[in-house]
């Protein structure tokens, strides 16, 4: 682990010192100097390397922890985490936007796009008859090139005519829906529960079958009603849910 000064912080800049410190620590992580699993220097050592106070260092570390880049272990220190998505209170965003907001490089592998009959769960979510055709888009979701989840989006076929013939391997699906059909989400309801990864998804996610995962179901609506039902299996070790509760 390098003990050279991390960066020269500039007190003349309008940018707060804690933010400069946060960016400096993050730069070492993203450059691979402090890889996943590494214990970073203690707070007093970071104060020396950065030339700032303990309060400033703690502010920076707290922000990086909230972003999922660091984890603190009582009595052991602070460690660099593997790519982790921390989901909490946020606006209605796509996966692409969520990854960008967390500072992760978004990636996606298209597994399939096909028209299938809606099962009972999908038909109830989209308010259509069971067995009606829907477009299912199944993708492997990545953050910083690491698999995070397997996501299957089900779209009402009457709302997206011709989408089956589009190349959906790149870009944001929400951007595509807006550009081609003028569909802009106004509300979404998400349900989280704990489940186990089956053998097929386990191979894609790089985990053992039966590993713990978050099962996330999302129904997205616009002024015309529900148009998308998404079912996601998110790796339990790379996806967290964090909420702030206030009186």
Explain this structure.
With 247 residues, this protein is α+β, with helices and mostly antiparallel strands. It has two domains: 17-80, Arc Repressor Mutant, subunit A; 85-241, Chorismate lyase-like (Chorismate lyase). The protein has seven helices and ten strands. The chain has helices at residues 17-30, 43-50, 54-66, 95-101, 120-126, 173-181, 199-205, and strands spanning 70-73, 77-80, 85-87, 106-117, 133-143, 146-156, 187-196, 212-222, 225-235, 239-241. The chain has a six-stranded antiparallel sheet. Helix 1 (17-30) packs across helix 3 and helix 2 (43-50) packs across helix 3 (54-66). The protein is elongated and about 65 Å long. The termini are far apart. It holds the Pfam family UTRA. Residues 15-83 form the HTH gntR-type domain. This is GntR family transcriptional regulator. It comes from Kaistia dalseonensis.
Topology record:
Layout: H1 17-30, H2 43-50, H3 54-66, E1 70-73, E2 77-80, E3 85-87, H4 95-101, E4 106-117, H5 120-126, E5 133-143, E6 146-156, H6 173-181, E7 187-196, H7 199-205, E8 212-222, E9 225-235, E10 239-241
Parallel strand pairs: 3-10
Antiparallel strand pairs: 1-2, 4-5, 5-6, 6-9, 7-8, 8-9
Helix pairs in contact: 1-3, 2-3
């Amino acid at each position: 682990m390098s003990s050279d000064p991390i960066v020269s912080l500039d007190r003349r800049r309008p940018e707060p010192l804690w933010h400069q410190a946060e960016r400096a620590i993050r730069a070492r992580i993203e450059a691979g100097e402090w890889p996943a699993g590494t214990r970073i220097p203690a707070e007093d050592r970071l104060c020396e390397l950065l030339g700032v106070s303990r309060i400033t260092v703690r502010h920076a570390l707290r922000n990086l922890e909230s972003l999922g880049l660091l984890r603190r272990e009582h009595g052991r220190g602070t460690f660099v985490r593997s790519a982790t998505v921390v989901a909490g209170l946020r606006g209605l965003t796509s996966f692409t936007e969520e990854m960008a907001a967390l500072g992760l490089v978004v990636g996606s592998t298209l597994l399939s796009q096909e028209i299938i009959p809606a099962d009972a769960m999908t038909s109830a979510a989209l308010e259509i008859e069971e067995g009606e055709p829907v477009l299912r888009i199944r993708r492997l979701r990545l953050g910083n090139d690491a698999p995070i989840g397997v996501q299957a989006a089900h779209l009402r076929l009457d709302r997206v005519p011709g989408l089956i013939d589009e190349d959906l391997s790149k870009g944001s699906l929400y951007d595509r829906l807006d550009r081609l059909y003028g569909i802009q989400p106004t509300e979404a309801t998400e349900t989280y529960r704990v489940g186990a990864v089956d053998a097929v998804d386990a191979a894609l996610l790089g985990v053992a079958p039966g590993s713990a995962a978050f099962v996330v179901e999302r129904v997205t609506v616009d002024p015309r009603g529900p148009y998308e039902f998404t079912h996601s299996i998110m790796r339990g070790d790379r996806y967290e849910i964090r909420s702030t509760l206030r009186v």
